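Propose amino acids for all 358 sites.
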C-alpha cells in the first residue's frame, strides 16, 4: 500500500497473457493525445498493494474483468505513492498515464501539482465526502487503514505500545518504510504526531526508535515477507496489503500501536484515484474509473483484495469482510487534516530526517 515496492511495469490482459517489460510512449501534447484516442488501451500508475505477484489480487481480477467487458487493455505501473506522483510530474510535457492511484497525502499532492482533471465516476456519489475531492479531482476506490505487522512465531503476543519498540530485543529487527517516498512510511509520521500530541514529541520518539531501526526502505510491501521469515520482528504496513499477504504468510500478524496509557489508533489510508490531466486515453480512463467503483468491482474488494469497499452502499459479508471487521474492533479511528499535511509535508519529512539522521 503504499509507496511499497520498487517500480514494476506490467500489462494486464484477459486470458493470462505474459506481462510485458515496458510501456510504449502514450502521447505528448494535444495532437498526440488526439491520435491515441481511438486506441483500446488505458495506462494506470498506482501505489502497490492491490496487485498480487500470484495474479490473484483485486487489480488482477478487476482489470481482467474490465478488459473482457470493454476490450480495453490495461497497462499497469506500480511503485511508491510519491514515486508515482514524481514520475507523472516528469512526464507532464509527454503525458503517459491515464489514471493515477495513490495513498494520501500524495493524491492531494498530485492535485496540487496540476496532474489531475475533474471527473466524478459513476458510483462516486456513494463514497463518503472525506474520501473524495469536492471538485471531483479524485475519489477513493478501495478503503484501507494504516497498521503495523509482527512475527507471530517469534513473538507470542503482539506489541501494544510504541514505547515497547524501544526494547533492545527489537534492535536490527524493526523497520519502517521511508517517509516522503512511501505512502505507508509517511503514515508513520502522521500516526506518531497524532499519538504523541505533536511534531516535536513525535520526532523525539522516532529519534530514540532509530537505534533499533534497520534503515530506510522505499518499499513497504517488501517488509511483510521479511517479517514473516523472522528477519524482522516488527514493520509498518497497511491493513489491506498485509491482510492479503497474510493468506500466504502464516507468521504475519497485524497490530495497531498505542501511546503508553492510550488506546490503539489508526486512520483511513484509502487508495484514491484520479483522471490524469491531458491523458492520452481520457475516455478509457473514465470507463476504468467507472468500473472500479461499480458494484461488481466493489463487492470483490474484501473477498479478493482484503480491503474495504469505498462505496458505503456495498456491504460484503464474505469471510474476509467478517475478519476485517473483527480486526478493526476496538481501534480508535482519527481523521488527519490532509490539507495541512499536504501543505507541511516537506517540513515534516525534513524534521524526521533531522531527528533520525536519515
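Proposal:
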Amino acid at each position: 500500500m503504499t509507496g511499497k515496492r520498487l517500480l514494476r511495469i506490467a500489462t494486464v490482459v484477459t486470458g493470462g497473457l505474459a506481462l510485458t517489460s515496458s510501456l510504449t510512449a502514450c502521447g505528448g501534447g494535444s495532437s498526440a493525445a488526439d491520435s491515441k484516442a481511438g486506441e483500446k488501451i488505458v495506462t494506470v500508475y498506482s501505489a502497490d498493494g492491490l496487485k498480487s505477484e500470484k495474479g490473484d489480487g483485486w487489480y488482477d481480477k478487476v482489470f481482467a474483468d474490465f478488459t473482457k467487458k470493454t476490450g480495453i487493455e490495461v497497462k499497469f505501473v506500480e511503485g511508491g505513492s510519491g514515486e508515482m506522483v514524481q514520475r507523472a510530474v516528469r512526464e507532464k510535457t509527454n503525458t503517459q498515464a491515464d489514471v493515477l492511484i495513490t495513498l494520501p497525502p500524495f493524491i492531494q499532492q498530485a492535485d496540487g501539482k496540476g496532474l489531475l482533471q475533474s471527473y466524478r465516476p459513476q458510483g462516486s456519489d456513494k463514497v463518503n465526502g472525506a474520501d473524495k475531492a469536492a471538485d471531483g479531482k479524485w475519489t477513493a476506490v478501495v478503503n484501507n487503514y494504516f497498521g503495523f505487522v509482527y512475527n507471530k512465531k517469534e513473538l507470542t503476543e503482539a506489541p501494544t505500545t510504541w514505547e515497547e519498540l524501544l526494547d533492545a530485543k527489537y534492535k536490527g529487527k524493526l523497520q519502517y518504510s521511508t517517509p516522503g517516498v512511501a505512502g505507508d512510511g509517511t503514515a508513520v509520521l502522521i500516526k506518531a504526531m497524532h499519538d504523541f500530541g505533536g511534531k516535536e514529541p513525535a520526532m523525539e520518539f522516532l529519534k530514540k526508535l532509530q537505534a533499533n531501526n534497520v534503515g530506510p526502505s522505499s518499499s513497504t510491501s517488501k517488509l511483510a515477507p521479511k517479517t514473516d521469515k523472522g528477519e524482522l520482528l516488527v514493520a509498518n504496513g497497511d491493513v489491506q496489503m498485509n491482510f492479503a499477504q497474510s493468506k500466504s504468510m502464516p507468521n504475519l500478524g497485524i497490530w495497531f500501536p498505542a501511546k503508553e496509557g492510550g488506546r490503539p489508533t489508526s486512520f483511513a489510508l484509502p487508495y484514491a484515484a484520479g483522471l490524469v490531466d491531458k491523458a492520452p486515453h481520457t475516455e478509457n480512463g473514465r470507463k476504468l474509473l467507472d468500473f472500479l467503483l461499480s458494484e461488481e468491482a466493489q463487492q470483490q474488494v474484501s473477498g479478493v483484495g482484503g480491503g474495504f469497499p469505498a462505496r458505503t452502499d456495498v456491504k460484503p459479508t464474505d469471510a474476509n469482510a467478517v475478519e476485517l471487521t473483527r480486526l478493526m474492533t476496538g481501534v480508535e479511528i482519527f481523521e488527519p487534516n490532509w490539507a495541512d499535511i499536504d501543505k507541511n509535508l516537506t517540513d515534516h519529512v525534513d524534521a524526521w530526517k533531522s531527528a533520525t539522521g536519515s
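Confidence is low (pLDDT under 50) at residues 1-35. The radius of gyration is 20 Å.
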